[in-house]
Amino acid sequence: MSEFNGEVNNWQTFWYTFESAIHNNQWLADVQKFKYLCYLLHDTAARCIEGFSLTNNNYKAAVDLLKKFGQTHTIVSSHMQTLLDLPASRHHIRELENFVDQIETNVRGLEALKQCEQNYGIILEKFHPKYFET
Question: Which of 17, 27, 49, 68 has the smallest number of CB atoms closer than 10 Å to its CB?
């Protein structure tokens, strides 16, 4: 099962996996689900819920708080910021391949959230030849 460190772009994968394996498991008590959840959280995500005692009642509150990582506007914003922060490489093929991979990954993420190209078209300027001149 995947872990979650608070990286917004990884929330959906984490949550859908956790939800299907643990959250929707009717054979587990909420305190057991909470224990699994705590085990899988790291960094920012773990700090987000660290004040909650491990109880049945606190599980729902912790999940509700963590779901802020999955708000559409937060994920869109993260994808956009990642795209805007990408450095364009001019010298190494590996850097250029990584650049293109990062663009494709983030654009697919935006498309999955039903964002139209008008909303992220600014990144196309990174393909302008001036970035690749020697």
Answer: 27
